[in-house]
């Protein structure tokens, strides 16, 4: 396997640090618009293993599909791993196909809200552009594996596992994510600094969140999707491992668009523990128009308001030393168990920032996202996972993934997941 990873930000950097410990690939090329940043990631990865020579750096413009394809051909990539934010999904996705390579991402092509009824009808959904080209990938005999980060990604693996191993009937697949993370300044005071891309946070939190319900669609998958206003239906969810109760709200996310395609359930939702401060900031940005991606002219210079907001905040890759606490990603499944009795089960994965910083020099949010595509690549490399076309993690066997993730090193990745039955 020869991997071309596009993106050397926080997640890409963490993925390289995780991957260097594994032997399943022949070459790993780190490509970024900023060559120095790619070189820094290569140096960090190779420094973790004596004699490591599989990593190299390259420059690429992720917005240019032809440039991505040319680099993929040049480095003889068998797999293109997209580690940049979702606005670049389609050029990387298209470039990988043009280069006859397989593809993985952690977020899907962007949605476009319905022009007339944004909170009642779904417009272009997350991933629609990619799924529309599934036939091309099938004809080429290549695989595009979408949404294989942590959320989406691990939660989608949990969904398949729950359907296969735990439930006879699923009432709801409810992704529920929360954390008790705080970031402090040099004086020990709490400060605002998002744990991942502010550009992406604005995109997914201010877009109308999508819900899927069987009763709305009958036998038609597409008719089962509908939208709600941002921050709808708040609920307090109790997260494990000392995180505790966190208020969660609906957020637009890929799981809702992926799970119903392969897993039988009556309802699919995604809720995230944003917190009052983040919700207030997002509402203010929207009120001021600072969430817009449309360029405005400032003293003769064209700038996107959202890009300016993101640029004014700390790089998520740099805040690890000032972060403390844990982050939890998981799936709450309700329905009827294999024994015919009602069942409610939370499948989850918790990462302590102190652990990820100590072991990998990566803050927990980006590290938790990065480990899952590396596990997936290893399963693809040894043939445990395979397929053609455009697929989500739900389309592939879950147990090998969960076993490899949790198994102690060096056999596995040493990152156990948990399961709680709740009443």
Automatic annotation (TrEMBL):
<protein>
    <submittedName>
        <fullName>Saccharopine dehydrogenase NADP-binding domain-containing protein</fullName>
    </submittedName>
</protein>
<feature type="domain" description="Saccharopine dehydrogenase NADP binding">
    <location>
        <begin position="3"/>
        <end position="144"/>
    </location>
</feature>
<dbReference type="InterPro" id="IPR032095">
    <property type="entry name" value="Sacchrp_dh-like_C"/>
</dbReference>
<dbReference type="InterPro" id="IPR005097">
    <property type="entry name" value="Sacchrp_dh_NADP-bd"/>
</dbReference>
<dbReference type="InterPro" id="IPR036291">
    <property type="entry name" value="NAD(P)-bd_dom_sf"/>
</dbReference>
<dbReference type="Pfam" id="PF03435">
    <property type="entry name" value="Sacchrp_dh_NADP"/>
</dbReference>
<dbReference type="Pfam" id="PF16653">
    <property type="entry name" value="Sacchrp_dh_C"/>
</dbReference>
<feature type="domain" description="Saccharopine dehydrogenase-like C-terminal">
    <location>
        <begin position="149"/>
        <end position="406"/>
    </location>
</feature>
């Amino acid at each position: 396997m020869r991997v071309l990873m596009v993106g050397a930000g926080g997640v890409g950097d963490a993925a390289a640090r995780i991957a260097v410990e594994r032997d399943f690939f022949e070459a790993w090329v780190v490509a970024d618009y900023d060559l120095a940043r790619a070189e820094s990631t290569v140096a960090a990865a190779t420094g973790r293993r004596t004699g490591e020579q599989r990593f190299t750096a390259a420059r690429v413009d992720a917005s240019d599909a032809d440039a991505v394809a040319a680099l993929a051909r040049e480095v003889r990539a068998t797999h293109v791993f997209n580690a940049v934010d979702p606005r670049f999904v389609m050029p990387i996705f298209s470039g990988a196909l043009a280069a006859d390579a397989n593809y993985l991402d952690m977020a899907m092509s962007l949605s476009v809200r319905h022009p007339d009824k944004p909170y009642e009808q779904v417009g272009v959904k997350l991933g629609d552009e990619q799924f529309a080209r599934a036939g091309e990938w099938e004809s080429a005999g290549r695989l595009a594996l979408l949404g294989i980060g942590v959320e989406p990604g691990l939660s989608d693996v949990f969904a398949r596992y729950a359907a296969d191993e735990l439930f006879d009937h699923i009432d709801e697949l409810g992704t529920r994510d929360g954390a008790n993370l705080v970031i402090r300044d040099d004086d020990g005071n709490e400060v605002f600094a998002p744990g991942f891309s502010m550009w992406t946070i604005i995109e997914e939190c201010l877009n109308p969140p999508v819900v899927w319900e069987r009763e709305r669609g009958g036998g038609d998958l597409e008719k089962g999707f509908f939208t709600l206003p941002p921050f709808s239906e708040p609920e307090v969810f109790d997260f494990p491992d000392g995180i505790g109760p966190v208020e969660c709200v609906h957020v637009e996310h890929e799981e809702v668009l992926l799970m119903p395609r392969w897993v039988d359930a009556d309802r699919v939702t995604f809720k995230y523990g944003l917190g009052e401060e983040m919700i207030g900031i997002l509402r203010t940005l929207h009120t001021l128009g600072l969430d817009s991606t449309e360029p405005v002219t400032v003293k003769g210079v064209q700038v996107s308001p959202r890009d300016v907001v993101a640029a004014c905040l700390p790089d998520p890759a740099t805040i690890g030393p000032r972060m403390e606490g844990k982050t939890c990603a998981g799936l709450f499944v309700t329905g009827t168990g294999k024994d015919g009795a009602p069942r409610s089960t939370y499948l989850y994965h918790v990462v302590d920032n102190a652990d990820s910083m100590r072991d990998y020099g990566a803050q927990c949010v980006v590290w938790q996202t990065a480990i899952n595509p590396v596990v997936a690549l290893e399963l693809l490399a040894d043939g445990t996972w395979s397929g053609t076309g455009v697929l989500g993690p739900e389309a592939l066997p879950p147990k090998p993934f969960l076993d490899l993730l949790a198994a102690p090193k060096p056999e596995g990745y040493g990152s156990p997941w948990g399961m709680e039955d709740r009443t």
